[in-house]
Design brief:
The complex is a heterodimer of chains A (426) and B (311).
Chain A (H helix, E strand, L loop, with lengths): L2 E11 L4 E10 L2 E7 L8 E4 L4 E4 L1 E6 L12 H10 L2 E6 L10 H14 L3 E4 L15 H6 L5 E2 L8 H14 L2 E4 L4 H4 L4 E2 L2 H6 L3 E2 L2 H17 L2 E4 L8 H9 L4 E6 H5 L21 H13 L4 E3 L7 H4 L16 H10 L5 H15 L15 E11 L18 E11 L2 E5 L2
Parallel strand pairs in A: 1-4, 1-5, 6-7, 7-8, 9-10, 10-13, 11-12, 13-14, 14-15
Antiparallel strand pairs in A: 1-2, 2-3, 5-16, 16-17, 17-18
Chain B lengths: L15 H18 L13 E6 L5 H12 L3 E6 L11 H9 L5 E6 L4 H6 L5 E7 L5 H15 L6 E5 L6 H12 L3 E5 L15 E3 L2 H4 L5 E4 L15 H8 L3 H4 L7 E3 L12 H5 L6 H26 L1
Parallel strand pairs in B: 1-2, 1-3, 3-4, 5-6, 5-8, 6-7, 8-9
Helix pairs in contact in B: 1-5, 1-11, 2-11, 5-6, 5-11
Chain lengths: 426, 311
């Protein structure tokens, strides 16, 4: 029977919104007690946190692990190590693999692979339509039974509204959560950048930020029709926010996320066609970035994800338009998020609310909090230690991070899953 | 004059004095090219490879002639027909060529930024002969030289760039160059082809051509890039010609001595009236072609000087 007490910790509690010194007692992988000030004396193994932050482990919705199909880009083993090193204790994986996770059999395959190789919790998402082609819905009931926690076609927008409305209706009857990528597919086709001065100067095919709002508006109308539970994977523009706010106010079952890259980078970071900065949707203007940060602060945007997308060198060493989209981020999610803390824009409980509590709540999980009875999925980190990121030190098999060579502040000291240490910085 | 650039990738990186240096040197080559013996040895012993990933006749011929007149060994590679079809990546192709030790690489590619990417991977000097919708620096330089010779100066002129600005690398390079040289620039075209964000570059935007042409010194027409259009930018060519094609009636609104330019190849009867294009009193289109060879000779000489210093 394991019995640990974390002492002298700066407890970051997203549930109460508090940030203060205290102790946390963990028995058999569960949080059993916590308190302020100095810890009571017990028989437990003592871990002295030396005043570092102790927070719930990150719950990351939308991690791409490239099994099956492209294991050379990321395997369950490498993704698990990267997640543990990044303080991510639950990865919620995307089904946009090759083949897509659209049958109970493929879902069981990846679940087995994760159990064998991954030290952190893995929860799979399944495709909403077969092959993510937007034509026929998947076996939502069977997939739920097999362990799917949500249904998404990832960055493929289901253009046929009849197909999408039926899938939403059916999903509602099963109690399944649908995650969609709000984007007007016609307007955004072929785009590699956000329209504006930068894209005009670089001569890149661009999409108006309005495409996101149009996609969201359509999806909201379908929610009014069907009553389904819906989560927008990434809201990245100011113009989409009023629509989201109205939909929430009208009582629809809607939540929204954003990606760490859209919170910490803008379109100008692409500079001279740096393809590691090519993500989907494309990076936005500084005004959009600030509006999205504010929406995370107020809680209008519920979750922050890494949108971890490994790509090998070959798929990035191409002209910008041809290069693959996406960036790895499991290990940079926390230090990048801490930029917003150091800039004085978001406090730590707010950041962790968006990275732990809200995603856990949305998926009906009991992790993501520091309350008694919650699983002891924890991250211990020093928010102040400075470093320069060297991408070749990343544990991911792919090292396509836009933060290479950048100054960052904040490192994970140790990560615990159900009270068991799965990572400690050497 | 020291030209402090390893490559010529775009006008964006050039200063006013860089631009003036290239144009001044090009003047000398204009004179040379008009003599019966058109030869110099400044590139003797150097190897120039023209890599065109996109069809081109005139630009490739101009670069080839420029290199040959300067004594370089020139090789043309039609990249569309070769290894790209076999699945080789741009970088692999660049590395392969790099191993053959060229000194000057002239590259055209259908994607914006592709020439920048290639330049990062090779040891020689790279000249951008057009990348996607991004830049076409030698075209802007030859246009500048043509304007300077016709107008006697390259500043404080009213210059109209008309037509398909959105898909045009020529327009972008010209906008940057003519802006750097402190001219007033108007962009004229339907809003589907002249997006509003171009006003952020300091240009005035007109969707009424008659209004836009009033009192301009230079009318620069652009080719309607039919091959770059995935549909629906204009209703028809005849309506486009009616509203935005340059004819004598519209040109009459410009200054009486305004010149007419076109980067070629022209769509006669789509963006420009054929008779007007051939009017030697107004059109400098043939002169543009002549200046092209001279400007490319000048640019290659300046880059080659840096090569010998580095060696």
């Amino acid at each position: 029977m394991s019995n640990i007490i974390f002492t002298n910790a700066r407890l970051i509690d997203p549930e109460t919104g508090t940030d203060g010194t205290g102790w946390l007692h963990v028995t058999d992988g569960q949080i059993v007690a916590r308190g302020e000030g100095s810890a009571p004396s017990t028989e437990a193994q003592v871990i002295d946190c030396n005043g570092q932050c102790l927070a719930p482990g990150i719950v990351d919705i939308g991690v791409k692990v490239c099994e099956p199909g492209e294991r050379h880009k990321e395997s369950y083993k490498s993704a698990g190590l990267a997640a543990a090193a990044g303080g991510v204790t639950t990865i919620v994986t995307r089904p946009d693999t090759n083949p897509a996770i659209d049958t109970p059999e493929t879902l069981e395959f990846i679940t087995r692979r994760a159990q064998a190789d991954t030290p952190v919790n893995m929860l799979p998402m399944a495709a909403l339509t077969k092959g993510r082609e937007g034509r026929e819905m998947t076996e939502i009931g069977f997939l739920l039974d097999a362990g799917a926690v949500a249904f998404t076609d990832c960055d493929h927008v289901i253009a046929d509204t009849k197909v999408f409305s039926r899938a939403l209706t059916y999903a509602r009857s099963c109690g399944a959560l649908v995650i969609a990528h709000p984007q007007e597919p016609g307007l955004s086709s072929g785009a590699a950048a956000t329209s504006g001065k930068f894209a005009a100067l670089r001569g890149l095919p661009a999409v108006s930020p309005m495409a996101e709002r149009m996609g969201l508006d359509r999806d909201i109308a379908l929610l009014e029709m069907t009553g389904a539970a819906y989560h927008a994977d990434q809201i990245t523009t100011a113009r989409a926010l009023p629509a989201l706010e109205r939909a929430k106010r009208n009582g629809l079952d809607i939540t929204a996320g954003t990606s760490i890259h859209h919170l910490t980078l803008n379109e100008l970071d692409v500079a001279d066609y740096r393809t590691f900065f090519k993500v989907k949707p494309p990076l936005r203007s500084e005004d959009d970035r600030q509006a999205v940060i504010e929406a995370v602060r107020t809680g209008l945007i519920d979750t922050i994800s890494s949108m971890h997308t490994p790509q090998d060198e070959e798929s990035k060493r191409l002209p910008f338009e041809e290069a693959a989209s996406g960036a790895v981020a499991l290990e940079t999610l926390l230090p990048a998020a801490l930029r917003l803390y150091h800039a004085g824009q978001l406090d730590l409980p707010t950041l962790f609310r968006a990275m732990t509590l809200n995603p856990a709540k949305r998926l009906g999980l009991d992790c993501g909090r520091l309350s008694e009875g919650a699983p002891a999925d924890l991250v211990l980190f020093d928010p102040d230690v400075p470093f320069v990121l060297d991408r070749f030190t990343l544990k991911s098999k792919s090292q396509n991070t836009p933060f290479d060579g950048q100054r960052m502040q904040g490192k994970v000291t140790a990560t615990f899953v159900a009270g068991k240490e799965v990572y400690r910085r050497s | 004059m020291r030209f402090a650039h390893r490559h010529l990738l775009g006008i964006e990186h050039l200063s006013q004095s860089d631009i003036t240096a290239i144009l001044d040197l090009a003047e000398k080559y204009v004179d040379l090219n008009r003599q019966s013996t058109k030869h110099s040895d400044v590139l003797a012993g150097l190897t120039q490879i023209n890599m065109f990933f996109e069809n081109s006749t005139r630009t490739q011929a101009s670069f080839e002639l420029a290199g040959k007149r300067l004594g370089a060994d020139v090789m043309n590679m039609a990249m569309q027909a070769s290894s790209i079809k076999k699945g080789e990546t741009l970088i692999d192709t660049a590395m392969t060529l790099n191993a053959m030790h060229p000194d000057l690489l002239v590259v055209r590619h259908p994607h914006s930024g592709a020439v920048d990417l290639l330049a990062q991977k090779v040891n020689c000097a790279v000249l951008n002969a057009g990348d996607g919708r991004h830049e076409h620096p030698t075209q802007a330089l030859l246009d500048a030289l043509t304007i300077r010779r016709a107008k006697g100066r390259l500043h404080r002129l009213n210059i109209a760039i008309c037509g398909d600005v959105a898909h045009s690398r020529v327009a972008r390079s010209n906008l940057i160059l003519l802006g750097k040289m402190e001219n007033r620039i108007r962009l004229i075209g339907p809003p589907t082809l002249v997006p509003a964000q171009f006003s952020e570059f300091g240009a005035e935007i007109y969707d009424d051509m008659r209004e836009g042409l009033k009192d301009v010194d230079v009318v620069m027409m652009l080719r309607l890039q039919k091959e770059r259009m995935d549909g629906g930018f204009i209703p028809s060519e005849r309506e486009y010609y009616h509203r935005y094609g340059l004819d004598a009636a519209k040109l009459a609104l410009a200054k009486p001595d305004a010149i007419v330019m076109h980067p070629g190849p022209m769509n006669r009867g789509v963006e420009i009236d054929g008779t007007l294009a051939d009017d030697i009193n107004r059109s400098v289109i043939q002169e543009q072609v002549e200046m092209g060879v001279a400007v490319r000779m000048a640019a290659m000489e300046l880059l080659a000087r840096n090569l010998s210093e580095a060696a």
